[in-house]
Batch of 3 targets.
Target 1
Amino acid sequence: MNPAKGQLTVRGIVIGCIGCAIITAASAYTALKMGALPWPIIFAAIISLFFLKALGKTNLNEANVTHTIMSAGAMVAGGLAFTIPGIWIINKAPVVDWWQMLIVALAGVILGLVCTAAIRKHFIEDAALEFPIGEAAAQTLIAGDTGGKTGAKLFGSMGLAGAFCALRDWFGAIPAMLFGNAAIPGVAFGVYLSPMLLAVGFLVGTVAVSVWFLGALIGNFGIIVGGSALGFWDTATGQGITSSAGMGVMMGCGVGVILKNILPKAARMLKAGAASSTFRLVAAPVVHEGVQPNKRRMRLTAGLAALAVAAVALIVSIGLSLDPLASVIVVLLAWVTCAMSAQSVGQTGIDPMEIFGLIVLLIVAAASNVAQVQLFFVAGIIAVACGLAGDVMNDFKAGHVLGTDPKAQWIGQAIGGVLGALVAVAVMVVLVTAYGADAFGIEGAFVAAQANVVATMVSGIPSVPAFATGLVAGCALYMLGLPVMMLGLGIYLPFYMSLTAFLGAMAKVGYDAVCKRRRAKLSPDEAAAREKAQGETGLVVASGLLGGESIVGVLIAFASVAMGLSL
């Protein structure tokens, strides 16, 4: 009997693919525009269950596999958006072809899928890591009792955000910034009128966004304004120090992840991986009483996986002009970085995929004579693989809680990953065609913060002492358990983005306070049920605002390309 029956279904694949295309496009836009990418898993879980129930009888495992397909492309888009635009930032021209981006994306997807097939048992069953995002998705499905109101809230908020975006960006009827004329030398002050950025602040959480905003205050009003006022440096120098320090803090967080979460358990992970590299996920051996597992089938599957990895090495060597040594380094270190990504996501819920890409980029640059553009390809492949690995492992955790067949989930992830690669590349091509390469960068329409970090590491850091200080501080603060990645993001990003996200977090504080007051007179059981419903409403509406602006932003870019306009 097929254990995946009733889990991986035709209608689930269709719903998952439609959702995957939409979420991937929105995620690519969000990652480039906001310099951040919230996990879409819980949102995808709610939507999957909603539409499956609307079509008739379903079960949680079918919803889980459907949401696995739906969310897969988001992290593929993130891996591309966090690395490849660095090429445009440096060259100020779209010098990379669409087929090269597609090779990067598909190579990362294949490596991520093969690696997660091998490490699933260790991280999900043996190590039993928390994977808070995957656990939350499972609990969301268990507690999910969606109905017509959920759909109305979601699509209503998406429509409002989309209409606002069109009025702002297409018709010019709404200004993009409030208080943008405030004359503060070196500080991009203002409130960005963006439902998406407000939603990001609402969804990320008050504590994390407060740390983000603290970083913005330190970087802009501490280093730039304060340092300039005290005569330590001029405004331009202060801006270079700020950006370098922000990059250093984010890199330091990545180093901290490795030192705190990865290295202490590296030997055990490698030993477990060597002992369990049977790819039982993909080809579970049939066991009967008194009969040994089908070793031949397991060897065949492992052989196919090895063949896929070898094919990736060959394709990136030929298609991306990487020399053989660089290709081998990328393929071998993809296993290491995917395990690092799984460990980080499992313990913290954070997947610093671009940091892992930077680490491999630097190793390749030191070991091989690789051209500048090819270094971005290296970082892109690793970032996509690690992003997909984080998403896959979260989904496996949800499946482990719900009893979903991992093979069905892996197949769903493969479908969503490949579709996500196609959609993400299409969106990236459309955006650079519509807006031009100059639109990407810290002062452009698309800040592409992570790609900017990669570009700076490749082309040269403005202030090496500030970067080194930030690196040490970021690592130390992460070791102390502080949300230092958000601090570095605040130091690095333009102030108006941090301020707007902070206003979104404050809206969450106000919303929670109002909801708590309304629950005060209810019985404990009624209050608990109302709290869950109110929490879901906030999540759905905020996700709709984020998705609405993202989707319409992509549509505007598509329309501008079709009409030959320059945005």
Target 2
Amino acid sequence: MTQYMPLFRSCTSLRSLTQLHSHLLVTGRLRHDPQPVTKLIESYSFMGSPLSSRLVFEAFPYPDSFMYGVLIKCHVWCQFLEDAIDFYHRLVSDRTHVSKFVFPSVLRACAGSGNLAVGRKLHARIIKAGVDDDAVIETSLLCMYGETGRVDDAKKVFDEMTVRDIVAWSTIVSSYVENLQVTEGLEMFRCMVEDGFDPDSVTMISVVEGCAELGCLKMARSVHGYLTRKMLDLGESLGNSVLTMYTKCGDLFSAEKLFAIADNNLTGSWTSMISGYNRAGRFEEALTTFASMVKTEVDPNSVTLYSVLGSCGMLGRIRDGKSVHCFALRRGIDPEYEYIAPAVVQMYTECRRFCDAEKVLLNVGDRNIVSWNFLVSLYAQNGIETRALSLLRQMVTLRITPDSFALASSISACEGGSLISHGKQIHGHIMRTCVSDEFVQNSLINMYSKCGFVDSAYIIFNRIRRKSVVAWNSMIWGLTQNGNSLEAINLFDRIYYNCLKMNQVTFLAVIQACSNLGYLEKGKWVHHKLISYGINNDLYIDTALIDMYGKCGDLVMAENIFRTISGKSIVSWSSMINSYGIHGRIESVISTFKQMVDSGIEPNGIVFMNILSACSHTGSVEEGKFYFNLMERFDIKPNSEHFACLIDLLSRAGNLEEAYRIIKSIPFLADSTIWGSLVNGCRIHRRIDIIKAIKSDLVDIVTNDTGYYTLLSNVYAEEGEWEESRKTRLAMRNSGLKKVPGYSIIEIDNKVFRFGAGDKFFPGAEGIYQFLGSFQNLSKQITDK
């Protein structure tokens, strides 16, 4: 090989190397001698021409393991990772002896491409070949397992190493940190120091990043102190990591001190400081720092501009945002919009300049699909549903494939009943393009459930083969919200008896279902199970339990849970007030309200709604008036539900004229619920004269509430006004409405039975109807006698 070295050293360009290649071909030195062939392969790869190195390799008839190893190593250098793995498979299939020189390169290819399957097989071959104690191979195995997310396997390799050098320790520490197992990574660092190893800057960067991820300021200062004691040089990378660590730990003062003594010509230091200000919500200072950076003539990069655009967006500074955008275009920073496009789009969107955001997308085209998906999601999340759907349609027209995140966001935008047709179109697109994943399927379940199409949601749910806890939760909530609480409980039982994963959301959904049904025994059973699952002191769960026990009649248990909550939220207080109201405990309602105000929590509209409802149930007219007027003191404007509750209270008490005067004084158009409360009061006190007097008001009401039409029709029928009753029923039918049949629920032997009028399909129906028939005959016989 030494005879060829001067020749290859003289090659300083691809052209001179090609000339040498031609010379070697003419002299016939490449036919049987592998040494110049191997050197050519290596030289071509170093000069950025891996295709040429591959052609040289293919032209040699008898490549050995070393030549394969060089070719594989060169392909890894050039990031042709899959090709490197393919050449390894070819080496094995040629039954050529595989030298240990090949293994580290192939392991790096597996790590970079995420090909864990090949990596595991390679590990087995290494063990079989008896070279698993080679230090370089062991370190490569550590890297491979760490970069593919298999930290446990990396730790096993590390534990079996006979000799651990600084590289091995650094690799295992960084593997833990990069896979977000920061605590374990810092523990390995502690063990490393205790074993007498002095970490280098590479190790310390991982440790510093781990501290930043934890956000623990005490630990951050300890690590910085260690660096100072060891007098490690804070170069650009480590210095920026320490600066970023302080910003993520919320200590901007220390970050500013470090920045003041850092090299002001380093782009990384300025960028870290700008990002730190953004993270702390100090967007003005971020923009000021960027202005100083430009004034100091330090060139920003795409990461810098990404942060600065975010500052402009959060402050709503459209003029500054446009300036930064133009600055990026003038300087040619990220000309293809590979990195800053999402930031530009977000900035324009947050400044409500939607047309500008969409112009950027048109310039980007299909080069940056992330930006399209990002804007669709932003529109959907900010309640701009029509723009989200329009943009999605535009993507499909331009043949830009939306990802699952954009599709799921668009589906969520269709959760309002008026947009269900668009949701169905998106569902059809998903089925045609086969891009559906679990995220999208769960969004479809939520959309159909919230639009009332629970059967469609259940069909999608059943088609999911491997259901995650999110899918189960979505379906249980969908059933509960659509009045199918019994089916929701049955679904929960399937989860429990099949030992599937559950979380707080699962329990919240089934507790709500028990609350809807008044299913006390099942609710107690669920309460016991969530305790056995270790879900204790959860504010949302405790509040749901208060509501469930209150509605199911066990007020003592509701009070016990309420007393155990340490940091009571307004929802907790509201649930307890509502529970007292359901049980007619008006004194307890008022007492609890006073305790809530005394604790420093201001009531909201829902709290007052529960108080007014309690007053209505107990006939506490004066108290109801007092608390209705008290809303003004807390700057709460009564809505239609508050007025309906007050009118119901007055109407039930017989104060019908006062109720009518209040309706006429309402600052907005009274709906069917408010008028229905007055009509119901007239029915109770048999005041058909008032109904006749307000007939013109009742005729003008347009509503989808079948209960209102049914109530009015029944009032007319009770008073013998058959023609008016018929007209009311006819108006309901002409509006396309149908009376929803009522049903009753009863709990017997820990089972809930639901049945409606004329229902003959519930369990035990035949026996019940036989008994009723016998009872009816017996009553008739007694009457005849």
Target 3
Amino acid sequence: MPRQRTKWLAAARSPVGACSAALLVLIAALAVAAPLIWGDAAGATDTSAMEQGPSGEHPLGTDSLGRDIFLRVLVATRLSLGLALAATLIGLVVGVLLGTAPSILPRRAGRLVTAAVNIAVAFPALLLALFLAVIFGVGLTGAMLAIGIAGAPSFARLTQTLAASVAGRDFVSAAKVAGVGRVRMLVRHILPNIGEPLVVNATIGAGNALLAFAGLSFLGIGIQAPDYDWGRLLGEGLDRIYTNPASALAPGAAVVIAGLAFNLFGEAAAAVVGSRTAAVRGGAAPPPATPHPATTPAAGASAGTETDADASADRDAPVLAVENLRVAFPHPAGWVTPVRGVSFTVHAGEAVGVVGESGSGKSLTALAVSRLIESPGVVTADRLDFLGTPLLSTPERDLRELLGTSLSMVFQDPMTSFNPTRRIGRQLAEVSEQHQGLSRRAAFDRAVDRLRAVRLPAAERRARQYPQEYSGGMLQRAMIGMGLMGDPRLVVADEPTTALDVTVQRDVLRLLSRVRESRTSALLLISHDLTVVAQTCDRILVMYAGRVVEDLPTAGLKDARHPYTRALLDTVPDMDVDRDRPLAVIPGRPPEPDQVLEGCAFASRCGFASDRCATETPGLAGAGRAHRVACWHPADGPADGVRTHSGATAPDEPFGERT
């Protein structure tokens, strides 16, 4: 925050900032003091001094009733400025409500609001104000409502754009997983992050509102006698512009100076907000599902004997069951399906890794099982159950508590995983306040305890800090701590170590392993790093072009049979690699989601492809115990590649609930 204050001070010291600040202070002082000091004198009539020119007694002359024009211009500052600010506030409030309505209302109603805003933006604001002034009636109230509502569409469009940019951030997705409602999401997570740009545009809008008010009063449909503002004074002085030009020039100059002050201040503030923003940063039916080869649920790699039959039955019941999962998005040429018929199960205490090149559908699969695919994306599946609850057919309101307390999401970029406008402790406490009914203090205490549980040093002090004061590794620990605010049965980690150095990667992976072992939680780890997955997970799903091409236990990774899996293994260097030889690569590129054709998607990059591979799509078929492969020509024999071991390094101490 000190850096932000420094930027504001630097902006205030700049020529534009200093000039605008000085003008605004002067105008504000006049608005407060002028009516108190000169109010009576400005309204006093003098029939002996009517329509006089400038003199020592009357610097700008007098009007038709002998009133001092200079004093009237000064006194009119309060009404002119107050009405402009009131109209701007009306426009800002109405615009924010319209701009955020699509996020709260049902989809059809939201589209109607968006269409209405788009139509209103097409009309010039002043023309719209004139039209509304006739509807609301002549006078102060009608002009204020007309100008305020006429400015609302521009604020609504800006709010929609800013909200859409924030809605894609990881901390919003984390709040959705935590079960935060739409209104609470809007008030606590979206609006605070778009407030500064809105305020900056409001300062510029105030200058425009000031000009619009002057225009309406000048035309005689704004302020009515005996009240007066700069526009009304300008209209009165225009009749005598040839005999006393100062009577018209003075109120006109006041409008220009005040409008310039607002616009210059907005420009200076925009430079500060723009640098901060740079640093922080409806449709047809979905495509029909294509036939998918029958598959059998994959068994976990690790098995053990259970003395309690009921406990064994509970463990066999999958925490997450996915069958024929498809994710589709609209495209000018039709629907694109980046995830095409993915099926797998995850049992209690099991760690399942999903690997593949960028664009293989790993992250979309994780987002789909977490209910984070937004419209216009469409998710379909023959089965998508979490703890026995169907995620696609259950209403969102009924799923909120289940996902908020039993599913934890760890995102790829720790720097975008938290709301930068709220303290870490309060963000963690929101889960307990929302779902466990704890008081604000009790929820914060629990958040501090969860931060201690993930071994964050000085947890109580850290809980009162903002995300910007954390390192990447600390933020990942805090994100895992947020998942521990409930009772996570499934932890979905979407490339949680990508942005971290090797040492911090190890600590985060150890922490995830401790969470899984101490709470019998399942882990779904998404990664492009085969070594990370091999050292952490019991079972590995290899994805390519939106499909699972191999499902095998980690202990049997050297027995991988799909050519793509073997190619991934060959690209992993080890200590025995020949330094004189170039690193191994997989030739070619994965197909784009809209360019996947029939047959095996890997055929163009595979040295074993045949004519059958180009025309028929292979389904997952058994290739050994707990091993399935989708290939017409699976390889035999052990593969070279990464050294694997099941499970991460054991923790130094037991991990779990602290009381």
